[in-house]
Amino acid sequence: MLLASVLFDKIINFISSLDNQLLLLVNGMHSTFLDYFMFLYCDRYIWIPLWIALFYLLLRVMSWKMALLGLVICGLIILFCDKITVQVIRPYFMRFRPSHSDDPMLSCVHIVNNYRGGKFGFPSAHSANSWALTFYIYLLLRNRVLTWFMVFWALIICYSRMYLGVHFPTDLFADCLIGLFASSLSYFLLKRYFAYQRPPAEEWRDIHVYQLP
């Protein structure tokens, strides 16, 4: 038991050290342009056009009822991720953000526009929401180009959270799992209770209309 405890402590210390080093590597490569870009990239309102574009895409491949349902479910997924990250997990683990005054990493972190986020950072709601939306769109449509675009978008969200110094890398890994769970559950319910049938990837361009039962 003692050996296992020592080994466990060493693993935790190694992960923590790696976590800190990766954070400082990303956060340390800052410039005036990147400060502005990453700060703006994390603004949720700037992505309203993305929501509109996705809804338009759903309207092209589904009936308006199914497209509206898909959009509503997408909103519920994001609401779920917000609630579980901010109100359930963060108060339990109480892990300070690297930008918080009580975290020893603060002296090494580059702060952008005095943006520090809240008190606790594990896990990140921004990242959980972006991965949930990415996985959901993938499961819903299975379009290769759109999927890679969403993955790239989510990865930049994760990078920006480290760049701004408000989240450790391990915070973001947990978010990916939360997003995967929320999107998978939602897609299962969509198929189970609304008889949604996803088109094969090779036939995506030839989709006609899906109707609610």
Give a short overview.
By secondary structure, the chain is an all-alpha fold. It is 68% helix and 0% strand.
List keywords for this structure.
213 residues, mainly alpha, 7 helices, 0% strand, disordered C terminus
Protein model, in words:
With 213 residues, the protein is mostly helical. Helix 3 (48-61) packs across helix 4. Helix content is 68%, strand content 0%. It is globular and about 55 Å long. It has helices at residues 2-28, 32-41, 48-61, 64-93, 125-141, 144-163, 169-194.
The average pLDDT value, as a whole number, equals: 85
Whole-angstrom Rg: 20 Å
Main pleated-sheet profile: none
Oligomer status: single chain
Series of H and E elements: HHHHHHH
Please, how many helices? 7
Unreliable spans: 207-213
Tell me the helix content. 55-70%
The share of residues in extended strands comes to under 5%
Shape: globular
Instruction: Please identify the structural class as seen in this structure.
Output: mainly alpha
Number of strands: 0
What's the end-to-end separation, in Å?
58 Å
